[in-house]
Amino acid sequence: MNGVINVYKEAGFTSHDVVAKLRGIVKQKKIGHTGTLDPQAEGVLPVCLGNATKLCGLLTEKEKTYRAVLLLGETTDTQDTTGQVLTEAPVTVDEETVRQAVLSFLGDYAQIPPMYSALKVNGKKLYELAREGKEIERQARRVRILEIEIHEIRLPEVTFSVTCSSGTYIRTLCQDIGEKLGCGGCMKSLLRTKVDRFELKDAYKLSELEELMKAGRIEEALLPVDDVFARCPAVRIRPESDRLIRNGNPFEKKDMAELTGENPMEGTELERSCVRVYGSDGVFLGLYRRERNGRRYKPEKMFL
């Protein structure tokens, strides 16, 4: 099987657990996920199968949307309510002050990654060091908060949605909001509602995928690889140029039989400069990037 399945990761599973269980369901080894979700977090986890595993890095870098509950007045070593409580303080701020503090994080800000994370330092994951009782200095990273919508303020809890750049830790955002308010804060719950084009309403639980597999209908949940790049124009290659492309060579306009669509003016850098390439038989071969002069295209990612 080649394609992407939009999995609903349930609480209690690690992202690695989801991949392992899906391997057992579809009886296929070549599977990879597109970005770690904390064990207690739920929501969208695109999982790539077969040659679609080449997509993992591309989807990991996509913008993501979350719905989170922030608990004010408490900090923990994990920055969420699963960790050991470090401080407790009364929440004396009013709703308007809270609202202003949350919205003040819109845009770029320097975020220090948490110790309980899968980031590696000198070959060792930070959470492994944290479990050994060690804490090391981490460099702040520039992240971007594109949208924040506050759904409810019922102190000491605040429920909000956030769309952010890849690499943003919502646990850390919650802690930073609490720190700005002077009472501390941590994350109570997290639901990932969107990763690029993959949305919560279309996600399948593992139990649902197991039923589809038993019924011989698993393809219903499988998104073809080229659909991930639906915003990129499509190029069909002339029969005499098929071999050239299948060997991963660049091609020119004379090799095209047909070009459908235009690159969007707005979108990711990849969408603005790449095309989907199909053989003369209609089989998707890969993603090619247009060179600056517009005359030649070179391979970005092949999916043979």
From TrEMBL:
Coiled-coil regions listed in the entry: none
UniProt KW keywords: Isomerase, tRNA processing
Reactions this protein catalyses: uridine(55) in tRNA = pseudouridine(55) in tRNA
Pfam families: TruB_C_2, TruB_N
Gene3D superfamilies: Pseudouridine synthase
Active site (record annotation): 38
Domain of life: Bacteria
Domain Pseudouridine synthase II N-terminal: 23-170
GO biological process: mRNA pseudouridine synthesis; tRNA pseudouridine synthesis
Annotated ranges, domain tRNA pseudouridylate synthase B C-terminal: 171-228
InterPro entries named among the record's database cross-references: PsdUridine_synth_cat_dom_sf, PsdUridine_synth_N, tRNA_psdUridine_synth_TruB, TruB_C
Keyword Transcription regulation found: no
EC number: 5.4.99.25
Gene Ontology molecular-function annotations: RNA binding; tRNA pseudouridine(55) synthase activity
Keyword Isomerase: yes
Similarity comment: family membership: Belongs to the pseudouridine synthase TruB family. Type 1 subfamily.
Alphabetical list of NCBIfam families matching this protein: TruB
Cited function: Responsible for synthesis of pseudouridine from uracil-55 in the psi GC loop of transfer RNAs.
HAMAP family: TruB_bact (MF_01080)
Protein known as: tRNA pseudouridine synthase B
Species assigned in the record: Anaerosacchariphilus hominis
